[in-house]
Design brief:
4 helices; 6-stranded mixed beta sheet; 55% strand
Length: 748
């Protein structure tokens, strides 16, 4: 850490509220030359502010912290931000974020994400677009709870905002090479500087070649590998003293034999011994990460985007425009039966594909802070087209009945127009009243077709299409009290909104899904102690979600059929505590503790897992899930990080020793409450040692992830009774194994 009023560059700080002893907080300024914690600057309220002054629950992680902790992908953010969880899926294109128990419970193209992901102010239309490589990132801001007032309809659970580095006025750059066990190699670099006195640039590149950490015994090949690259560029032009433009573009490509999901267990049943024999030499267990699959598993991803940001400073106001276009393609296949047998004789003449493109435009008018207060006013437009399609062949009844091929295509078009604003009134002494609101109008349509050569195995062919529109106004009210120079208390009420949706499956008959709304209450304290060498922040929250959008299952066809519906109501409540401290000049500690109670209040027609159906626990294919836990949400989760610098007076470098401990409670991975999809509590320790040059900009980092080799699964689900009866499938991630690596980095 450096000293005084510079921005944080080290550890995550999650800020919000509660009732700490205000009398213990003082107004004393820093004394002597003792180090103090640096100021954090965020844009959570669409303007640059000190995070301690923002009456919003925000987690902040700097680019330097991510680099030091060897975080390379957005999915790894949850290891340093306890309030954030990742909902893993059968492939990276359908994974998503979860905040305070709220995440996307369906991946139908007609349904919006619950947690909005943004890149440099541009919203990502699909959940799978969120999992970017974290290269040359300035910071990541995570806003917790409904954030629709300033961020829109798909922020009903929160926002993850990834902010990349800008061009610099002087020439600079960085280059790094990383090697990790199991044959993973990474290179990344960036260069920035001026072109003219008013024009600057930044170029960033990244590449990875990972051999994979799992084995497919069917063909004796490594799986869960990855080959990817990413390039990004920015041009910043100071057109006049009061007008600037930033043009940004990026392109990324990823090809992997993933995600190969392994068999965790096969419960007792009439076919258990035969099914276990078929898996050999793979032995199902919670440690198993290998497969014996006849179907190749792969995912191909392409993503690109362009944006133009303009800021016009009008002295008392700043007018901002963000114009953006993005497109994203995904093609993937998984082995549905997770065995070498292929009982339904499935094949895929055309693998499932998704092609998404979007256009967005935002205008904002931001006032300069005045004695009376400040405001932000804006208008927003978003349009998205999502096309999906695949062809699947099943030869279950051959040669008696010819193989059945089903070809399906779905097109979804969604448009959202919104007006929003937020006003801060300094109405009395150190008190502020914050009033905000967002008016949204949604226009949604879809068209699904399916052609079938035979209707025996799959649902019958057909066509479904529909359109709808909806409007909503979501208000916000907050009260903020600046108790002292180092303590602020706030309370807020926010109304959340997630737009209407369509179940695009033919079985559902084109049924619409009602909008999801929420009422969220929060109380918070942001506080500085010990001459600002210790920051402690706590928040308590309560949120009620109505017409929660999720999936349920129907017993149609051998694989069953998933439909999208409104489940009724869910409640999420809890507490979040975070701290960051400087016990001494060369030692930084930070940590967080989160308690989340996320529960289903109403869901009388809840879905059943394949295992529950196989065991006859759901005779009507439904169950009442009231009182159950929301998936991917451990009740307790914590993180503790330490960095200690050893100054070597006679050497050209210093040594930095770092450690990270993260732990979490038991967690369910299925909404069905199937107890066999529970991951037990676990704790992970990561260690690192850094040689950091004093005069030269080199850094050599040796690190070990998961030092004690603690096994865990990031996904567990029950397979279909028609494919693997009583079989449970899991994803054991790479860092559920001990992994060592080394990185050499040079900054210039």
């Amino acid at each position: 850490m450096t000293i005084n009023n510079k921005r944080f560059t080290l550890m995550p700080l999650t800020l919000a509220a509660s009732l700490l002893p205000v009398a213990a907080l003082g107004d004393n300024p820093p004394t002597g030359d003792r180090p103090i914690l640096e100021e954090l600057i965020v844009t959570a309220q669409k303007r640059e502010q000190n995070l301690q002054d923002v009456a919003v629950a925000v987690s902040l992680l700097s680019g330097k912290a991510m680099a030091e902790a060897q975080l390379k992908n957005a999915a790894e953010l949850a290891t340093l931000i306890p309030t954030l969880n990742v909902q893993a899926s059968s492939g990276p294109s359908t994974s998503s974020f979860n905040i305070r128990g709220i995440g996307t419970q369906t991946f139908s193209p007609g349904v919006d994400p619950s947690v909005s992901t943004m890149l440099d102010g541009v919203v990502m239309g699909r959940s799978g677009m969120a999992f970017l490589d974290l290269v040359d990132v300035e910071r990541v801001e995570v806003l917790r709870g409904p954030q629709g007032t300033l961020y829109g309809k798909n922020a009903s659970g929160g926002v993850v905002h990834i902010i990349t580095k800008d061009p610099t006025p002087e020439f600079s750059g960085t280059a790094a090479v990383t090697a990790i066990e199991e044959g993973e190699y990474r290179v990344d670099g960036s260069v920035a500087g001026p072109i003219t006195d008013t024009l600057g640039y930044r170029l960033t590149g990244f590449g990875v070649d990972d051999d994979g950490y799992s084995k497919n015994y069917y063909n004796d090949k490594k799986v869960n590998d990855n080959e990817a690259f990413n390039i990004r560029g920015k041009l910043a032009w100071q057109a006049t003293e009061n007008l600037d433009f930033t043009l940004a573009g990026d392109y990324s490509k990823s090809d992997c034999d993933c995600t190969a999901l392994s068999v965790r267990e096969i419960l007792p049943g009439p076919d258990q011994q035969q099914l276990l024999q078929e898996q050999l030499p793979v032995v199902p267990s919670k440690h198993n990460q290998d497969v014996n699959n006849d179907q190749r598993t792969f995912t191909h991803l392409h993503s690109s985007g362009y944006s133009l940001t303009a800021n016009w400073d009008l002295d008392e106001y700043v007018l901002t425009s963000i114009t953006a276009y993005r497109d994203w393609q995904s093609e993937s296949i998984v082995d549905f039966d997770d065995s070498p047998q292929n009982p339904l004789k499935l094949s895929f003449p055309s693998p499932p594909k998704t092609d998404q493109n979007q256009f967005s435009q935002e205008f904002r008018l931001t006032s300069a802070p005045a004695e009376w207060g400040s405001y932000v006013l804006g208008a927003f437009y978003f349009e998205q087209d999502v096309d999906t399609g695949n062809a699947t062949t099943a030869g279950l009844l051959e040669p008696i009945v010819p193989a059945t091929t089903r070809t399906s295509k779905t097109s979804v078009t969604s448009k959202n127009t919104a007006l929003f604003g937020e006003v801060n009134f300094n109405f009395w002494r150190d008190w502020q009243l914050i009033l905000g609101g967002r008016y949204s109008y949604d226009d949604l349509s879809y068209h699904t077709t399916a052609d079938l050569t035979d209707g025996i195995v799959f649902p019958a062919p057909g066509e479904a299409k529909d359109s709808l529109d909806n409007s909503d106004f979501s208000p916000k009210v907050a009260l903020q009290w600046n108790v002292t120079d180092s303590a602020m208390v706030y309370g807020s009420y926010v109304s959340g909104y997630k737009g209407p949706a369509f179940d695009t499956g033919l079985v559902a008959g084109g049924s619409s899904v009602d909008p999801e709304t929420s009422d969220s209450f929060e109380i918070g304290l942001k506080s500085g102690w010990l001459d600002n060498r210790l920051i402690v922040n706590v928040d308590v929250f309560y949120s009620k979600y109505h017409d929660f959008q999720a999936e349920t299952s129907l017993d149609i066809g051998p694989l069953g059929t998933i439909v999208v519906t409104n489940v009724g109501a869910v409640t999420t409540q809890g507490m979040e505590l975070d701290f960051i401290a400087l016990p001494m000049e060369n030692w930084t500690l930070s940590g967080g503790l989160v308690y989340t109670d996320a529960e289903i209040d109403e869901y009388p027609m809840g879905n059943c897992s394949g295992g529950q159906r196989a065991r006859g626990e759901c005779p009507n294919n439904f169950q009442d899930l009231a009182g159950g836990d929301l998936p991917y949400t451990p009740k307790w989760k914590m993180n503790l990080s330490s960095d200690y610098t050893i100054a070597l007076q006679e050497m050209p470098f210093d040594v930095i020793l770092g450690a990270n401990l993260r732990a979490q409670d038991d967690v369910l991975y299925e909404l069905s409450q199937d107890p066999y999809t529970k991951q037990d509590a676990y704790a992970i320790v990561d260690l690192r040692a850094v040689l950091a040059g004093k005069e030269e900009g080199y850094r050599v980092t040796a690190f070990v992830k998961n030092v004690f080799d603690k096994n865990y699964a990031s996904l567990i689900y029950a397979n279909s009774p028609a494919l693997l009866p009583n079989g449970y499938i899991q994803l054991v991630p790479k860092y559920a194994n001990r992994m060592a690596g080394i990185e050499v980095r040079y900054d210039f």
